[in-house]
Amino acid sequence: MSLAIVHSRAQLGIQAVPVTIEVHLTNGPLSLSIVGLPETAVKESKDRVRSALLMAKFEFPVKRFTINLAPADLPKEGGRFDLAIALGILAASGQIPGESLPEYEFIGELALSGELRPVRGVLPVALAARDAGRRLVVPLDNAAEGAMVKAAQVFAARHLLDVCAHLQGQTRLTRCLPAINAGAAALAAYPDLQDVRGQHQAKRALEVAAAGGHNLLFMGPPGTGKTMLASRLPGILPPMSERESLETAAIASIASNGFDPNRWGQRPFRAPHHTASGVALVGGGNQPRPGEISLAHHGVLFLDELPEYSRQVLEVLREPLESGHITISRAAQQALFPANFQLIAAMNPCPCGYLGDVSGRCHCTAEQVQRYRARVSGPLLDRIDLQVEVPNLPRAQRHSEEPRETSAQMRERVARARAVQLQRCNTSNSALSNSEIERFCRLAAADEKLLDTAIERLGLSARAWHRILKVARTIADLAGSTEIQTAHLSEAIGYRRLERKA
Ligand SMILES: Nc1ncnc2c1ncn2[C@@H]1O[C@H](COP(=O)(O)OP(=O)(O)O)[C@@H](O)[C@H]1O
Ligand SMILES: [Mg+2]
Ligand SMILES: [Zn+2]
Fold this sequence. Notes:
By secondary structure, the chain is α/β, with parallel strands linked by helices.
């Protein structure tokens, strides 16, 4: 055979798009040219592949090799195609059989010795290969990740020679199977609510937020438990579905740190510091990488000290908060990353943090307080449905040994309320459409008036009307009520109080 075709995949956003590697061999002086890759990637890949083939004691016939990576207009990172290129050369020059190659996809970088090095984004590749009905060969270090995809036929190899032995029908590669206990640690991973004393109102808001997927803001002086409470949200959220787990894992898989199979099924909790760059937060770069908002997909994004984040960064959050994804444009390409996160934020009431404290230690002027709060723009606050104060604990509660509720107890109520929502509209209340709101969040006439008055009195936007109804729906669901009652609506309105003050 003088022409070999090998399948692999490039990465575009969280998509693993097909790439075909065609190797053509003709007579002529020895030369190796790769087309369809950027310059530097070509050179590096060529050197690695050549060295790996020689180290593995294959021949490098004195011929002309033309290697085409198609489609050419796709941005490609070099390393992940090494294995496919090497196999193409071997098949085209008759050193391994090429017949079974079409049944496979290959991904992996070669070390100069011929060993296979792990690459990013194996999970999306395994998903796509499965859907294309092909087997997938990955580096051993990526095996656990590839195995997370149910019904995918993933084989792990340590060395180029192992792959060749497999294709020659000698020693077969072993198929990767998921670790039996993957995900068992999912819930144990989060701190428990039981640790938090008092703060009943904040805990209630946390429960409502978890049940309906609503965004939440805690405001209070330092040391009252805001960070403690926020970090306990993922531990009370409903368990992840298979699809959610896959999507979350796929994003981690293409990020710099990769996917840790031990975190399968765990809702992510991301807490980027307020000094984080825009790219770190929303994603970007030459080879676009997901940012914190995508790493928080199906989980929680915690922004502590909310007013300290740059205005620009907070503005960028608005689009994904509405749409659940972010589009990153680089040159001619657009990468779409999912970013369906639940936002939880914390802030102090004033620059010094102690406004309203009994000690009277706050000397912030009204103007300073106003300027501080105005850093969180109205449109962002508008999208935070639950705003609660987390005050200093009264002395009695600080030392009380009354038994406190565990995360497991609250999680049970949350799961029940969420199940009702999924059955009703196949989504959490936070994502209800306007027509669904009209259908499922009806109010009695008197309650409509109550809501009207509240919106006028608090000076809320028109959007707030719908958003308050969604929260009221969640509160009714937690109470097991098909109707939204006055008490449910009043509680929902109560969560908007800070907006007016701010
Ligand atoms: N409500 C509380 N229950 C138990 N411990 C608390 C509470 N509030 C604060 N603490 C203690 O104070 C520390 C700081 O709390 P933290 O959540 O960081 O406060 P904040 O984020 O409001 O500044 C915690 O690590 C914990 O030891
Ligand atoms: Mg804190
Ligand atoms: Zn102050």
